[in-house]
Amino acid sequence: MNARRRPSVLLSCVMILAAAIVGVPFYYIVVNTFKTQAETAAAPLAPPSGLYLGNYERVLESTPIAQSFVNTLYVTVLSIVIMLVIGSMAAYAMLLRKTLVNRVIGVLLVIAFLVPGQATLIPVYRILVELRLVDSLEGLILLYAAGSVFCYFLIQGYLRSLPIQIFEAARIDGAGPWQIYWRIVLPLIRPILITVGVFQTMWIWNDFITPSVFISSPEKETLVLQVYKAVGQFGVDWPAFLTLSVIVLVPVVIFFIAMQRYIVNGLLQGSVKG
What we know:
Residues 69-259 form the ABC transmembrane type-1 domain. Keywords: Cell membrane, Membrane, Transmembrane, Transmembrane helix, Transport. The chain is an all-alpha fold. It has helices at 2-32, 37-42, 54-62, 65-96, 100-114, 121-131, 137-144, 148-160, 165-172, 177-188, 190-206, 209-214, 223-228, 238-270.
């Protein structure tokens, strides 16, 4: 019994140590938001001597946090909905209709997925200029909708783990493609939809490159761009930078913790053939 417990105890110690190492940067950020700049410079890893809220008051007064939060939430929610709808419908159609055209499209999607987004920034920017969507939240949503390819791959892998006889039986009973998708496919793939939604939410919420390139109006900036404003040309306003980082991180950390069990459930169910 002791011999069996020994590897488990060792693994627990290793995981606790790894968690502590990963948690140090987060501790550093949070702790220093409750210090003055002089106190931070003197002892950055020490706990604060008192509950100093001046950094939060200054940031909330000088930065349009509320507007940036609404912008980020608007872009994130609409982008996730579009990606999940397009990705799930595409995965469902490609699975049921295994034609030559669909296979060619599947190969093209794989190739497109392998191209890094940074390599296409200039042509994409020119396209948005023609569409008059540069410096607009709707343009950001359109750009993030390209993440449907990632959703498509994960959802298709999950659909393949489901017995195809379910869809064939529904078709024999007279259900059309839309009825099968709405009444059968969507309820069955809910775990992977939640998993993909969480991954894409964290990507969009924390993304810096896309809004920094395509957004220039202050009233349309996202939360990440507000953090970047604390970085000046010749120096960094560290109290503001750390405080804004906490404000940006807290919602997504809470969201991830709340959805963690759904992520594991979705991945495990999709990895085993039903």
